[in-house]
Amino acid sequence: MRDVAREAGVSVGTVSNVLNKPDEVSADSIARVQSAIDKLGYIRNDAARRLRAGVSSTVGFIVLDGRNPFINEVVRGAEDEASRHGIAILVGNTDEDPAREEMYLDLFAEQQVRGVLISPYGDITRRLQRLREREVPVVLVDRMNPEGRFSAVATDSVSGGRMAAEHLLAQGRRRLAFVGGPFDMRQARDRLDGARWAVENSDAGATLEVVTTTALSVEEGIAAGRRIMDRQPAQRPDAVFAGNDLVALGLLQSLSTGGSLLVPQQIALIGFDDISFAAAAAVPISSMRQPARAIGQTALRILLEEAADATLIPRQTVFRPELVARASSG
Amino acid sequence: MRDVAREAGVSVGTVSNVLNKPDEVSADSIARVQSAIDKLGYIRNDAARRLRAGVSSTVGFIVLDGRNPFINEVVRGAEDEASRHGIAILVGNTDEDPAREEMYLDLFAEQQVRGVLISPYGDITRRLQRLREREVPVVLVDRMNPEGRFSAVATDSVSGGRMAAEHLLAQGRRRLAFVGGPFDMRQARDRLDGARWAVENSDAGATLEVVTTTALSVEEGIAAGRRIMDRQPAQRPDAVFAGNDLVALGLLQSLSTGGSLLVPQQIALIGFDDISFAAAAAVPISSMRQPARAIGQTALRILLEEAADATLIPRQTVFRPELVARASSG
DNA sequence: CTGTTAGCGCTTTCAT
DNA sequence: ATGAAAGCGCTAACAG
């Protein structure tokens, strides 16, 4: 910066002002400083900037599972919005491991990130509270915060679960199963709750059983499907609501006998998220679509607003999922 | 840090040493400093550390398309290795847009990242050279650097292309098509070159046509499939090698007539990358598997080695792809 | 509108 | 083994 100042024949303070408050500087200075910057290939040192000004140009995003295309779309939405503000995103995958969650929270705190987006696994309110005491804004993603202590952006999973179950009931199915878990994962619990509500409030005499998985992954979907196939045909559900599309994809793979799929004739299937691969599956999978991109974008926007004004009251933004019916649900 | 020093009854220099060079400090000091840190909830300020010491604890990763699960696995591999070193990863999606590539390169330079991993789109040797002049190590990912100026970690796409085509030929197919592009994307060109070599060096009298796409995406695969279906059946290829699995997935969706797929009977299909969704497709897709995780891990490891020792000679690490034959290639 | 300067929190000599 | 102090590159406050 000193070199740039010398080259442009101004002081470092002026160079700083050109970079940060161009309207307080004469057009002439701006031009000269700019050309000096170009000539010398100067790149400002964000560490020093950060140290002095206390503002950082990174935000952290802690996600449960980066292998889920849905999450990737959310991150992508946040990234697009961030790049518009000259901000880069630090990503951390937790694999639903609280220890990794802790680690990234620490790492991001060290980095003095401008804020943290997180789709949390367990209950880390206390941990996040500490972050907030350090003035680091936090926005929960893909999950509500009932106490309203943090801003949150998510889809209404309960409604989504209800709509999915109602769809299956409308197809004439009566022996429903929810395949998902673990249930300390909020999203899974909410989707099940919604489905349960729909079944209990229908007068069709339908039932809902729960097949628990240890994660919302393709592998767990396959395993759950095997368990279902191990039963006598009469004992199997006639419709399955999968916790998300990965589970649905896994289920689809194992719900077949001797090469012939049971879906949708014997078993109707619906997933959640509407990832792009759901439509390309062996049987195109029905799903509850979430506006992934918009979720990420909105979350980042709120985060930046809160970073700019710490007095803002936390707000919950809820998107409504949308039923996308395909072949798998008949 | 001053607070910690006071609490522990030592100087800030000692606190710093406890954190960075524990072996130069007495066990007693370590213990007291540690407990002071815990008590006060001290988190070190990475900006200051960076400013003074010049070492950063972030690396940047610039990827072509974060929607590709293959790339995500690579990033994941890098992230796992990074977290072992207390390093976080800044991600930037370029969407094959040179302007975004530039933007992220600048942003990462400002951040004084420890190094940059990049799966580059066009020819940005010059741009990367500038980074290197600033002592920022660069490792190319998923792409070789023939001039050997940068370290690179990738799969041998030419061999992969050759193996894919040979597999199709071995299935008795003779009218092969390569669906992919654009060809200023190195990986696409290499895969085609490999396939071409295999066709030309087989004495089966096979042919290879090229169906060009503007990206290696599901959408482009669908569009290319439509163009193929628009032809008279006799004019269609009897085997398609897709530039990657996304294209293959797209092709699979459009290669059907009135609900009945032509794959694999009329048209054999093979993709590249072996993303997890390839196996779950309508017809399980054959693919050339790349060790995604290992690529990311290796790239990061090399990056850190080069960051630690600038005199290291660039090295190219090549993984061999592996044929995974499934139903789609008969 | 521009220049001067203190100091952000840390690491790293250099004495002790 | 520990402490004192310089200074990394920048921003912001203030003087001119």
From TrEMBL, chains A, B:
Gene3D superfamilies: 3.40.50.2300, lambda repressor-like DNA-binding domains. PROSITE patterns: HTH_LACI_1, HTH_LACI_2. Residues 1-53 form the HTH lacI-type domain. Pfam families: LacI (PF00356), Peripla_BP_3 (PF13377). It comes from the Bacteria. Keywords: DNA-binding, Transcription, Transcription regulation. SUPFAM superfamilies: lambda repressor-like DNA-binding domains (SSF47413), Periplasmic binding protein-like I (SSF53822). One of its GO terms (molecular function) is transcription cis-regulatory region binding. The keyword DNA-binding applies. This is LacI family transcriptional regulator.
